[in-house]
Amino acid sequence: MDFFGFIITSIVLLAIGLPVAIIVMFWVTRNKTDQLQQQLDELRAQVVALAAGPTAGKDVQSDIVDPISASDAVSSEQTSEPEMPEVSSEPRRESPPVATSSTPPVAASVTRDPGPRTKNPVDHFEDLLRRIGNVATSYFTDGNIFVRIGLLVLFFGVAFLLKYAAENSSIPLEFRFMGAAAGGVVLLVFGWRLRLSKAIYGLLLQGGGIGVIYITIFTAFRLADLLPPSLTFVLLVFFSVFTVALAILQDSKALAIYAVLGGFLAPFLASTGSGNYIGLFSYYSVLNAAVFAVAWFRAWRSLNLLGFIFTFGVFVLWVAFDYRAEHLYPTSAFLLLFLLMYSLIGVLYALRQPEHMTGLVDGTLVFGTPVIVSGLLMVMLRDYDYGIAGASAAMGFYYILLARYAWKHVGEEFRLLAEAMLAIGVVFATLAIPYALDGHWSSAAWALEAAGILWVSIRQNRFYAQCFAIALQVGAGVLFFLRNIDDVGNTAWLNPAFLGGVFIALGAFVSARMLYLQAPDFKLRLLQVPFYIWAMAWWLISALVQIDEYAQHQLSAWLLLFGATAALLVYFDRLRDWNWMPAATNAALLLPVLMLIALYSLFDNDHILVLPDLYFWIAVLGTNYWIIEKLETVAWPSWVNIAAHTGLVVLTALILSFELLWIFKTKLGLPGQGYLAIFALMPLIALRLAQIEVLPAIKRIGPALQLSLIGTLSVLLLLWNLLINLTNSGDPSPLPYIPFINPVDLTQIAFFVLVLDSLKLVNPSMKIQREHIGVILAGLCFVWLTAVLIRSMHHYLDIGFDLSAMSVDTRVQSAISILWTVIGMGAMLFASRNKLRPLWIVGAALVGVVLVKMFFIDLGASGTVERIVSFLVVGSLLVATGYFSPIPEKYADPGEKMAESSHA
């Protein structure tokens, strides 16, 4: 390298390294400055309180206490290093405390930290922006800026000098490196001597000297081959231990950061591009051992993160650009070593917290370490059968052991750490199964990791981390759908489409449950329902795809899937006291799903209870009854329980009715249509059981369920009556047809009897009254009697049972006219005797319809005997009706009729 190339390289490295170092040093010192400023404000407030008198002093004493918040305490990490705003040539002297007899001491109340104080996430974000915006100004105005910049430039200068001297100088190489090392030792010695009189100045000199020694040793080993590997390793270990000892003795986080930062930057500054990755990672192992040693005594998060970022950042870059298959074993060894170090550093960080923050979890180390390591292992082991599966299983086992240790050997305050470790272990142990089957599961893994991140972010009240976890959850599902949804493989259930969908559903379900468990004012709590729907959609669709692809009996599989899912939801919601409305609502939807499946089966197979579906129908209907019974305790409107029980009874009756109909039609092969009456048998039985209160649910819920069952079954039978009277000839073959004594008419008579018997349950407080039901029954009875007449004429007079034939047959028309007149006359006669004016009007209207029919339809065939008989009979009946059934008087008030009756 020529001199100009050296200068250009130096400028570039300085331009890159200077801002990085400034930000790191600001990060270390800024929180300390904030604490000093806060203490100064508190002291000023105390002076004001003392001047105001005893009473005011007490008030101020209770009001000015503003303990360091949890987030600030984490960043400052309770350091007590002797750092001052400015460096003075005189030793610092403590002023004696001022005390008065009238004012109690307040030092304890000022310095005591009662506990972490939760900040609003928005306040954290604004505070972060403010600090980042003032980085440059703060760095160049706090402390001795000339020493800081000078040491930084000196460090880079030594690195460039060593590299240049190794290539261009005529001085023996050994003496050049000895001179550089001697300069570092001089800085270190002077810094140590000044540690008491000029604390900050001395610490800065010590950090600079250690950095110079680090880079000198590494350059002598890496570039000049002056030191053998064994001696280099010993020297690095020695100076790492030495640096740790200095930092701990002086309680100086800054010294540790300066030294470690210099150590991590050394390979970049002295790099020749030789690709000696074993030397690089061995060197980083020593540095990380120093970080681990500091973490054993101090909870310095910034130092931990510095080592974490450099170690895994360099590792990721090296794997991305230089990794080859032959590097697997040594690279894996280093990676597992770093995993071990930083997973334990995360545990130590929680253990070394002050009393009021014991058990605090560093999410970056606890969750970031396994995520990065697993990602690197996926890249390194992608060409090895079951490599990723084995690595996932090993990591899961390791983290479960960590969780067990945290749970067993530390107190309850470390529960969050133990739960986090357990969650990570379970995730990786679970992923080992699909990784053993297939290799592209990153999106499914992200869904589970998102659930873990959401859990910890909720526990630590980190709003933006919660938003990130939710976005990652949704993104993982979308990515998996786009890449793997059609990859059903060659094995049922054990294929990427199903297992990946199950993992995404599991992550979404856990997320929904966690959101539900938060306080009602939790910002994201409303997302529990969308996440629950997302989870159920993934679970059910993934399973239905497998059923469609592999199941021989799809209906049976559908019944098993939906029944088992609903039963599990009810088990956890009712028996395990989840009390989760989305789960209860989802379980209640089993009934409409069964209705749709029954309808599909009916159209597909002509009946529902096909083997082997019969056994699954029996099981799922019984399960559904158990589900509805358990859901009776859910806090929803009572009509939901009534509707559920009613729907189940009606569905069961209809399934059995269609099955009986299919048996009579297919198995018995009856030639006529009378067998269709068997359809009403099961609803009639259910109606009778509801009347006599045999069903246990009626005794639990009460008359409301009984009336719902009777009303619904009656409407169902009413529709059946209308349909069969309008379309069925009632042929009872091989039996003879006898009016009113045949299957069709007998079932309708039974229906009328049961409905009339049910009228006693109707009370005046109900919306529907007995009069309304009576009108409906009368209309239905009118249709039935007309149908009996038509069916009788069809069977005995051999008239075709179709509308076109009967509309032109004079016998049918005459018979209908006479029947309707008799019915109308009977209604008028009954109404006249009981003074029921509305009924009399209805009867008269029916007679009027007959008259219109006779003059406009029947008159066209007046020459026939049938028409003549029709006119004579109807006319005679009308005359008799007018004599025996005069129209009842109209009463202005219902009470008027009662008064007249009592007077008579």
Structural summary, described in words:
This protein is mostly helical and 904 residues long. Among the domains are: 637-800; 809-904, no CATH class. 74% of the residues lie in helices and 0% in strands. It is built from 36 helices and no strands. The radius of gyration is 45 Å and the shape is elongated. It starts with a helix and ends with a helix. 36% of the residues are buried.
Highlighted features:
single chain, 904 residues, mainly alpha, disordered C terminus
Described by strand count, sense and barrel closure, the largest sheet is: none
**Parts with pLDDT < 50 across at least 5 consecutive residues:** 1-29, 55-119, 892-904
Rg, alpha carbons? 45 Å
Helical run tally: 36
Structural class: mainly alpha
The count of strands amounts to 0
How would the global form be characterised? elongated
Strand content: under 5%
Write down the overall mean pLDDT. Answer: 75
Relative helix content: over 70%
Distance between the termini: 134 Å
Q: How would you summarize the topology of this molecule?
A:
Blueprint: H1 3-52, H2 54-63, H3 70-76, H4 107-111, H5 121-133, H6 135-139, H7 145-168, H8 173-193, H9 199-222, H10 229-249, H11 253-269, H12 277-297, H13 301-322, H14 328-351, H15 363-380, H16 387-409, H17 415-437, H18 442-459, H19 463-484, H20 496-516, H21 528-550, H22 554-575, H23 581-588, H24 590-605, H25 613-630, H26 638-667, H27 681-691, H28 696-701, H29 703-727, H30 743-758, H31 770-796, H32 803-808, H33 810-834, H34 837-856, H35 865-884, H36 894-903
Helix pairs in contact: 1-2, 1-7, 1-11, 7-8, 7-9, 8-9, 9-10, 9-11, 10-11, 10-12, 11-12, 11-13, 12-13, 12-14, 13-14, 13-15, 14-15, 15-16, 16-17, 17-18, 18-19, 18-20, 19-20, 20-21, 21-22, 22-23, 22-24, 22-25, 24-26, 25-26, 26-27, 26-29, 27-29, 27-30, 29-30, 29-31, 31-33, 33-34, 33-35
